[in-house]
Amino acid sequence: MPNIFDNDRSYLLGDPELDILGDREKLAQWRHKNLGPPYYKLGRKVIYRGFDLNAWAEANRVDPSKGGDH
Fold first, then answer.
1. Which pairs from 1-9 meet CB under 8 Å and 24+ separation?
2. Residues 47-58, buried b or exposed e (16+ Cβ, 10 A)?
3. Which of 14, 33, 60, 2 is nearest to 48 (CA)?
4. Fewest beta carbons less than 10 Å away: which of 6, 26, 43, 59?
5. What does the DSSP assignment read for 6-70?
6. Cα Rg for the chain, rounded, in angstroms?
7. Which domain of life is it from (predicted)?
8. How far apart are CA 26 and CA 51, in angstroms?
9. Residue 68 — very low, low, confident or very high, per pLDDT cuts 50/70/90?
10. What are the distances in angstroms from CA 46 to CA 1, 27, 42, 49?
11. According to the 3-state scheme, what is the secondary structure of 7-18?
């Protein structure tokens, strides 16, 4: 699968590329509920690594030919 995100890049909240996952509020809800992709919390900054985002996206891939679930 081609990567959705650049594996060698770090993404900060507010980067438009993260909009594909959801808005800031959705990402905050996931972090609060320990859902969503892995992230780093450095002070008040939240940082997502491209490699982690791609791995999380692949783990959540749905293949309808296999019954619709993972």
1. 1/58, 1/61, 3/50, 3/54, 4/53, 4/54, 4/57, 5/50, 5/53, 5/54, 5/57, 6/50, 7/50, 7/51, 7/54, 8/50, 8/51, 9/49, 9/50
2. ebbbbbbbbbbe
3. 14
4. 43
5. -TT-EEETT-GGGGGT--HHHHHHHHHTT-SS--EEETTEEEEEHHHHHHHHHHT---GGGTS--
6. 13
7. Bacteria
8. 20
9. low
10. 26, 10, 6, 10
11. CCCEEECCCHHH
- Closest C-alpha among 56, 69, 39 to residue 3: 56
How is residue 29 written in tokens? 């809800």
- Short-list 14, 2, 67, CA closest to 45: 14
Over the stretch 3-15, which tens digit does the pLDDT of each residue have?
999 999 999 999 9
